[in-house]
Known about the structure:
This protein has about 120 residues and is an alpha+beta fold.
Amino acid sequence: MSPLEDTWALWDRAWDNGLSGPERLALLQQCTASGFTYTNPQSVVCDNANDLVEYIGKILATKDNTLKVKHIQWFENNSRCALQWDMVDIATFQPAMSGWSYGQFDVEGKLVDVGSLDKACIG
């Protein structure tokens, strides 16, 4: 794995269902830079890790099962990445959500910008 994939792996772990708010925040603080922004087509914008912890918690609260993120495809170039992913129910290994995300990293390899499209947005 590349250093950027290692950073993104922390991002993925922050989306695992079952984490407490403080655990999620600690992961996000490890992988995001000051001034970090997350956006998605539902007009969600989180400008810091605390806002993102709250948003992730709301999204995952609608899911009954323990979920983990699994990469389907990964592309990176010039401190940017794009990837296809599934959020998988670990009991059945079936995707509960699917989508695409992109990220931009700073010179230290931390995320400064992430955007996501889930299958509901893609169609």
